[in-house]
Amino acid sequence: MSISRPTRVALFGKPPVPGLVKTRLGASLGDAVAASLYRAFLLDAVAHARCLRGPITLFVDGDPAHPALEVVELPTWAQEGADLGERMAQCFARELAFGVPVLLAGTDVPTLPERVWHAAREALETHPQVYVPSVDGGYVLVGAREVPRFDGVRWSTRHALADTLAQNPDAAVIEPWYDVDDAEDLRLLRLELALRPSAAPTTAAYLARLG
Fold first, then answer.
1. Which of 66, 108, 135, 189 suits 179 as a labelling partner, its CA being 20 to 30 A distant?
2. Is the pTM higher than 0.70?
């Protein structure tokens, strides 16, 4: 289906500062390497999000004016809320006020394909929300035409998507993808980029230098 109306994109991220990002990867790679790797994730996530050709805003867990974020060249806002659900709800409330659908994704999914971004946007033509599941029971992207409900979701567990869908039963669920949080995820990422470095060029180049 051809989509004519615009779509806004929101990304959730952090300043790529050693010790503040990807701490599980930092335990094995070192904090400085983990932060540089996350910086590459961030740049590739932004590049993929640009495929929708709509406005992109970075919502920051931390200081939205941190100089380390200048590399993304995006408007930045602070995430607001006591937990992830509140922060996402606040983000959707702000972005939906512009009157167009919104796609919200994390920045630890550097290879999330453009086909998934487009499929999520198309799903919003017939559903109030759309989710891209992750292999751990959560999700890496949520799109909405109205603010989803996130009350009582068990975040960071295998129940997160199921809890969310229980409150938003009319949502669409499309092709799953994976985020990169730990050493096992990084092995999968290395394998994908060895076969298809164009999936995340900045990340692929950094990993190649890292060896």
1. 66
2. yes
